[in-house]
Amino acid sequence: MSVLDLAREDIRAMAPYSSARMEASGGTVLLNANESSRPPNIPGGDGLNRYPDPQPRALVNALAELYDSDASRVLVTRGSDEAIDLLVRAFCRAGRDAVLISPPTFGMYAVSARIQGAAVIESPLEPSGALDADRLLAAVTPDTRLVFVCTPNNPTGNLVDIATLRRLATELAGRAVLVVDEAYAEFSGARSAATLIDEFDNVAVLRTLSKAWSLAGARIGTLIAHQDVIGLLRRIIPPYPLPSPCVDAALAALSYEGRRLQRHHLQEILGERSRMAVELARLPGVREVLPSHANFLAVRFDDPAGTYRRLYAAGIVVRDITRYPGLGDALRITVGTGNENDRVLAVLRAGVPA
Ligand code: PMP
């Protein structure tokens, strides 16, 4: 059995849109795509009159190398948000199929599923934040097509180890695709689930340049999956998803110098994360700082609403995560620069009621 047997029959059968750039490459006089032959009259406008390469080879290769995978297993998307959406649309029939999520977790899995008309099955994490593989597997129904596992998990920051992911991939083979969201992987140092794709065609891994690579504004996500899954999603991804200035920004960030700077920046965030975890835990009104493998800390407060307001009044915006199950007293605080973190601590130390 191939992973494609789990995909929507109609998507597999349909003729995908064939763009002008796909049908013919090369040439010097380009009159096949109804573009303007003149570049726009703006600074840096050279080349922007042309549609971009749908999957620029240089970027695909750079990402394949970065994620220790192969170019045939890489699809570059507009943020990993788009990869989530493409997976849901390719694998879930509206009104029939389902995705499985483990709350509290990233909200877009359920949102994309609902937009597609797919059901959302919930298998909550343990109160400790750990993922219980037996419990998750027991929740899988015959209609379940995608099982989302976020590691490190947003918003709790905890990891799912590779042995558990391997077990899930094994048990789900022929039944569902295991989608491992590694948006925060760089902050954890954990082994990527992309290594499982050699053995399991039902594993798909999500990565992004939005977090550890400081490029949230460029919207560069990567799906790493078996080439059949990549081929399937290429049938439904819009023809020119990646704006050329964003591709250029990503290539610059992944250059030798860009990587050197990124390593430095990453160390800084990891240092600040440890410092913040210790300092926050010492503050009155803080119940618990959840151990985090990501670039944020989920923090339990005696008075989360008051704390949120106090920070907000000082111009500091954190994320209220009290609506998530098991996190009714928690705020999520992204690790910022040293200065930004000092401001958070100063406001919380002042302890003035809102
Ligand atoms: N996955 C997780 C777990 C996230 O937290 C986020 C962003 N908050 C995303 C995916 C989406 O990231 P992007 O679309 O910027 O790549």
Topology of helices and strands:
Elements: H1 9-13, H2 20-23, H3 57-66, E1 74-78, H4 79-91, E2 98-101, H5 108-116, E3 119-122, H6 133-139, E4 144-150, H7 162-172, E5 177-181, E6 203-208, E7 220-225, H8 227-234, H9 244-253, H10 256-281, E8 286-289, E9 296-301, H11 304-313, E10 319-320, E11 330-334, H12 338-350
Parallel strand pairs: 2-3, 2-4, 4-5, 5-6
Antiparallel strand pairs: 1-7, 6-7, 8-9, 9-11, 10-11
Helix pairs in contact: 4-5
The site of 4'-deoxy-4'-aminopyridoxal-5'-phosphate (PMP) has 12 residues, from helix 4.
Describe the structure.
The protein has 354 residues and is of the alpha/beta class. It folds into two domains: 3-19 and 54-254, Aspartate Aminotransferase, domain 2 (3-Layer(aba) Sandwich), CATH 3.40.640; 259-350, Aspartate Aminotransferase, domain 1. It is 36% helix and 15% strand. It has helices at 9-13, 20-23, 57-66, 79-91, 108-116, 133-139, 162-172, 227-234, 244-253, 256-281, 304-313, 338-350; strands spanning 74-78, 98-101, 119-122, 144-150, 177-181, 203-208, 220-225, 286-289, 296-301, 319-320, 330-334. It has a seven-stranded mixed β-sheet, with helices on both faces. A four-stranded antiparallel β-sheet has the order 8-9-11-10, covered by helices on one side. Strand 4 (144-150), helix 7 and strand 5 form a beta-alpha-beta unit. Helix 4 (79-91) packs across helix 5. The longest helix has 26 residues, at 256-281. It is globular, with a radius of gyration of 22 Å. It starts with 8 loop residues before the first helix and ends with a helix. The model has no long low-confidence stretch (mean pLDDT 96).
